[in-house]
């Protein structure tokens, strides 16, 4: 998940009312009014920023052969660290409370999440909780029922549906507000400046900026968006055939363990977000390492018996 600050509530759901007995002129007038309303809901700033970002990423691809190998390595390291900030931090720790982390680890994950630049931890976690509680409804920030494009990136181009705002206010976020690491917004500004300015100076501003910042950021965003789009549309449903989220190995490889989405929506409390533990799940490896180092603990896990029973009861028989 990722969001931007300028897509607040909009009363237009983007739906058409069924045709009634209106005459042609009335229907045409209503259609024009609806179109104007939808256009007012478009967040043009986000549209322009995403266009510029993806244009910059395309240019960065041209620079890859010219860049120093250290720049390639640094870019990949930035991708992994920022991905962990989202997957192990904003997602599994703060959104689902699937394990506990001590202060040094929480600070590291907050810094890594700031590098990912996908909104602050509080907003990310609040919206993700809404996504799980109201999945595939108008209260879901990136409702996949509205199509692949909307679930992938289109939801950032329009203001949030009013249900996202209204029902989001009913969520219990007291745990997030009680965590000083979550509400300390200065971390985001400090880490952003450090990563984009100071670290780039060490590797050469031009190539490093476009590869380690622009290209890395664009790829990480699209990988995260694939969890919202592809993993809600393509794949099997061995745990619960009655929900949209799927098991998608392609997404799993890119999103370092977040593509086992049918499992995750069936057992959202599981710290591994999959049945298979360490397999194809670097985020789980990281959390286990932190536990071994004494920086994390209290991992929550669905038992084999619980998983087997759920497969038999609601699974599609694919696994």
TrEMBL record:
One of its GO terms (biological process) is unsaturated fatty acid biosynthetic process. This is Fatty acid desaturase domain-containing protein. Residues 72-268 form the Fatty acid desaturase domain. Keywords: Fatty acid biosynthesis, Fatty acid metabolism, Iron, Lipid biosynthesis, Lipid metabolism, Membrane, Metal-binding, Oxidoreductase, Transmembrane, Transmembrane helix. It is a multi-pass membrane protein. The keyword Oxidoreductase applies. The histidine box domains are involved in binding the catalytic metal ions. The chain crosses the membrane at residues 42-64, 70-90. It is found in: Membrane. It comes from the Eukaryota. One of its GO terms (cellular component) is endoplasmic reticulum membrane. Residues 16-32 have a biased composition (Basic and acidic residues). Its main location: membrane. Residues 1-32 are annotated as: Disordered. PROSITE patterns: FATTY_ACID_DESATUR_1 (PS00476). Its cofactor is Fe(2+). Belongs to the fatty acid desaturase type 1 family. The keyword Amino-acid biosynthesis does not apply. Pfam families: FA_desaturase. GO terms for molecular function: iron ion binding; stearoyl-CoA 9-desaturase activity. Signal peptide: none annotated.
